[in-house]
Amino acid sequence: MCVGISAKVVGVKDGMAVVDASGAKREVSAELIENLEPGDYVMVHAGTAIARITQDDETESDDILEML
Which CATH class is domain 5-67? Predict the structure, then answer.
């Protein structure tokens, strides 16, 4: 089983994105997602933004992780 973490993009530069995942900021690869911009929400797995998601998806993901 693989686990992805939802995060908000706070910056993008040279194929990399700085994301905020529940207050923890880290740099991840943004190569798989076209036209990624600050304010977008993404699913992050293994140091890579793998999918753009909605804010509702991000909220639901955070709620589920808190329950676990």
Answer: mainly beta
